[in-house]
Prior knowledge:
By secondary structure, this protein is mostly helical. The chain folds into 4 domains: 31-143; 144-247, no CATH class; 248-306; 378-475. The protein has helices at 8-12, 16-27, 31-45, 47-63, 70-91, 96-108, 110-114, 123-132, 135-138, 146-158, 168-191, 203-212, 223-237, 241-246, 256-268, 272-280, 291-304, 308-322, 325-332, 339-352, 357-366, 370-379, 389-399, 404-420, 427-441, 453-463, 468-471. The radius of gyration is 30 Å and the shape is extended. This is Tetratricopeptide (TPR) repeat protein. InterPro entries: DUF6880, TPR-like_helical_dom_sf.
Amino acid sequence: xxxxxxxxxxxxxxxxxxxxxxxxxxxxxxxxxxxxxxxxxxxxxxxxxxxxxxxxxxxxxxxxxxxxxxxxxxxxxxxxxxxxxxxxxxxxxxxxxxxxxxxxxxxxxxxxxxxxxxxxxxxxxxxxxxxxxxxxxxxxxxxxxxxxxxxxxxxxxxxxxxxxxxxxxxxxxxxxxxxxxxxxxxxxxxxxxxxxxxxxxxxxxxxxxxxxxxxxxxxxxxxxxxxxxxxxxxxxxxxxxxxxxxxxxxxxxxxxxxxxxxxxxxxxxxxxxxxxxxxxxxxxxxxxxxxxxxxxxxxxxxxxxxxxxxxxxxxxxxxxxxxxxxxxxxxxxxxxxxxxxxxxxxxxxxxxxxxxxxxxxxxxxxxxxxxxxxxxxxxxxxxxxxxxxxxxxxxxxxxxxxxxxxxxxxxxxxxxxxxxxxxxxxxxxxxxxxxxxxxxxxxxxxxxxxxxxxxxxxxxxxxxxxxxxxxxxxx
Length: 475
């Protein structure tokens, strides 16, 4: 390796004095680098000194009110990441109690940051979520008084509008211990007698939480739901499955996804018959998600009860209704040799006539059956929805080498859709698809019942001759 390569080993050869001079030089005019260097100097003096500087920086970030635009967002993310690393990696090993309090302050900082930065990419949220996970390691060494910690957690989860404290109970359950968990349960039960006073859920807060996929239990605006979820966290931490299940209402237990969850808890305790009854009592027409989870739990129950044939029948029924590849794979691997080949062929034939052509295409792609995918496309080309470019574009790329006609038919669907609907923002991609069709034409010897490339292009020019901004993109 060259001695000029920029790496730690070569830089060490410069010597401490030269490196110090270089660091002073590169830090000139960079507040970010200066802050990092000061933190390293503080760490060299001990964890308490570093904690003092981190606390000052967190206070400064909290007081800031200015909106962080896209130009400064990465700098903010790096700053937050640096503070989190100082707490979790440099203070925590020698001063876990100090690190615990600092980490709590860091997580409390999240709302004030979210309110002044566009985090549509979730990068800011990732920093806070990753830092929060350190509670699991730091907590048991931080010598927290369980009852005081329980009160602190209950206060935090009640003011959790941005989901910053989501999952805090499972993370700190070992730190709380049974006494802390019991105290937390007592606080919640005492709160149950208080009148409901849910604050109105502002539309802007709902949007931000949905954007991040967070928002915690108060997303539904229900204090009762908050209490229920925390009590379930406590029950799970204490291995109290009955207490966990008891938090669900009768109507909730009829939802497939909840019935599946509860059934698995019952099966884990050996109550398989009760689990099967729970699943059979669920409402299959519930609009909420979770049907495939219900199906898998149902199959596992049947298998545990040695109802092997019934489990196989259900796997096939689910596949026939949904083309779920996982169900088909599980079904096939339990069949005798050679019989699996016959059933696989039957499954592919079913997929060719499945009522949703796009779902069928996704099945063949997931099954890595490009021949089946090409046959489907050529047989049902008119059903390929050109608006679904997120499916069709990668499918065409996979097919272009060995099945160029099928690939062309997908590109044509996307071309026609974009032009008929006047989606000018997609004209660049659409022009690329036209060029893809031109390139593939050299590999196609027979277009069968479809127009050849020249005829397609002539028709395209006639149908969309007024789309000047599109045609200008073609050579």
